[in-house]
Structure to design on (222 residues):
């Protein structure tokens, strides 16, 4: 069976990749390095405007996909990946310029890398029974037996709090954030939500450990 962070895709979920929602999501991924560059060069106003556009695309792709029945298997992977690329780019660049605590940025990025690695392993588990020898074979196997990424509610809340801190930090850098102490409260909230979100995926660990046991050396009998 699929791991808890994955779920069988509905039978009406499409498999084509060039849908409008996916293109919008892809634009958010492409925009993230540019936003990081703007932060690193201290163009905070432009970075804040870009973050507003990124947030709008995050809402738009989901609304369009659901309203016009354009949900795809690829979209279920791209949307959370786009969130992680955006958040990781912003937290890393803001930490480099000293706008947020580097330890907080490391926590956020480490959590996202762990989830990406876990999801990748889960997808490999899903397809390893099929006859696959290349990336295209994996894509075809997933098309025959589609699954979609299923973020937990804690993960969704965590993303919202993380993005709120990004906006508050950029506004603070522009001198238009009303209270610096509230940004400190947001930082603590991000740390708590990031840990809680990671904990919400702990039920997947026994399955991952069981899957990995096939590759671990066994102790010889005494």
């Amino acid at each position: 069976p699929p791991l808890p962070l994955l779920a069988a895709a509905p039978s009406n979920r499409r498999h084509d990749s060039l849908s409008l929602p996916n293109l919008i999501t892809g634009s958010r991924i492409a925009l993230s390095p540019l936003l990081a560059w703007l932060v690193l060069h201290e163009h905070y106003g432009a970075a804040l405007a870009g973050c507003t556009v990124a947030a709008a695309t995050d809402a738009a792709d989901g609304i369009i996909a659901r309203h016009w029945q354009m949900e795809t298997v690829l979209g279920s992977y791209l949307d959370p990946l786009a969130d992680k690329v955006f958040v990781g780019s912003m937290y890393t660049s803001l930490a480099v310029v000293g706008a947020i605590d580097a330890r907080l940025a490391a926590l956020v990025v480490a959590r996202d890398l762990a989830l990406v690695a876990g999801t990748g392993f889960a997808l490999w588990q899903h397809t390893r029974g099929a006859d696959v020898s290349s990336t295209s074979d994996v894509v075809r196997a997933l098309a025959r037996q589609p699954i979609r990424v299923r973020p937990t509610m804690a993960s969704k809340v965590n993303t919202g709090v993380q993005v709120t801190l990004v906006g508050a930090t950029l506004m603070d850098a522009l001198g238009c954030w009303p209270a610096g102490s509230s940004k400190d409260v947001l930082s603590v909230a991000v740390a708590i939500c990031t840990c809680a979100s990671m904990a919400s995926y702990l039920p997947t660990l026994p399955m991952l450990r069981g899957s990995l046991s096939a590759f671990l050396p066994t102790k010889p009998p005494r």
